[in-house]
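Appendix C reproduces, verbatim, an entry submitted by the partner laboratory led by Prof. M.T., so that reviewers can inspect both the input and the predicted structure.
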Amino acid sequence: MTDILARALTKIEADRILGRFDHVVVFPADWEFVIIHGPNGVGKTKFLELIAATFDLRINRIKGIPFESARFIFNDGATLEVAKSTAPRSALSKTKQRRSSIRDRAVIGFKFSGSDIAKPLHWSSSLDGGDASTNPEVYRYIEAVTGFKPVADEGFIHPDTGEILSLYEVSRMFQDRLPIPIQPEDNIPDWLREVSDQIKIHLIETQRLLNLRIPRSSSRSEPARSSVELYSEDIVRRLKDAMAQNSRRSTDLDRTFPDRLLASIGPSDVSEEQIRDKYKEQTAVREQLAEIDVLSEAEYLPLPERTLQSWERRVLWMYLEDAATKLGTFHDVLARIKLLTRIINSHFRYKTFSINRERGFEITTDAGENVSPGGLSSGEQHELVLAYDLLFKVEPGAIVLIDEPEISLHVSWQRQFLADIIEIAHVSGLRFVIATHSPQIIHKWWDRTVALVEGDPEEY
């Protein structure tokens, strides 16, 4: 099939969303974002859920979405189609017949076609699709660890969102804490998994983002942590990982430096201006790393004021090349931290946001008082959690679906939202589909909007 990096989603068509609406969204591959808007009740949220469930191959979730069919068109001409049909009750097992619903009888069919395959590929979900394990001990164990309560014959209910998830979906969410191998609920073919893997989707339901609570452990007596607290801890872990990688790379380079120096004393044509420019650039990076306490007081190699001799230029160039390699271990995380800090400080009033490698998020008022991340207002937490989620929690190259980002955002923040999104897209390599009611968010970007129904958005 086509190279993963070459395939991009450029058009989405969905038929009979909520039983009546047909939606078409064109999304050119060179756009950072596309905006969809429309009044309540036309299926904006269900449209985003359908996109996410399709590429996550969450068959049970697709069954629960009211739609008839959908087509996903890619920039290489390939098309993935998904359609829902209802089988007669007689096609179910006797157990399913006794307690069947429309969802039980729904069959989800997939079809993939493209110029690089001889004929279209087809697959349909099984009628009796379900979780591989029905052992009640497994369900009790998962409930104790995750707090997700079992729902008879359906799976688990998310304690914060109310969403029904299958055993397999819950096991994927908590795979680092559940040492139980759970098999997928359907025997999904390799070709469909490959197509799914080529388009990464990340759905952000912003009204639920702040409500996420993860237990500290399986013990019910310990309090849960909020998203903003979890993310503060997450950045500490990421910085420690970067420092460990930097230490390993530094050790390898320092160990081989004498041999490399004797074997080759660097290029003879490097100029003093190049050396001083490179040194200046690296000093700026070190200062930025020192601000987040990643580097202690560095032992900078001072450059003499006088003109450098030829052999000095060669040795210094090799030293600076090694330094660039060492500093490169921080490049990605530093770029994201800089953008996060800039975005948050441009929105916070009377407070300054910073990051410390030991303490995570630090917030200081203009009176010099420290504020815990959990002590921020709901709007401030929303802004911080959303920006962090996009910069650090989403896989590079993904399409991010954001549902109503205006919730909890001040009007002035809404006007800046898409400018921030563009910067995040460039740093993280993301693309966005944004569903909104807010003219303030759309601002000057009307040429990138798709109206799901005709009408004046000011009336929404």
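The CA atoms of residues 351 and 368 lie 9 Å apart. Additional entries are available on request from the coordinating office.
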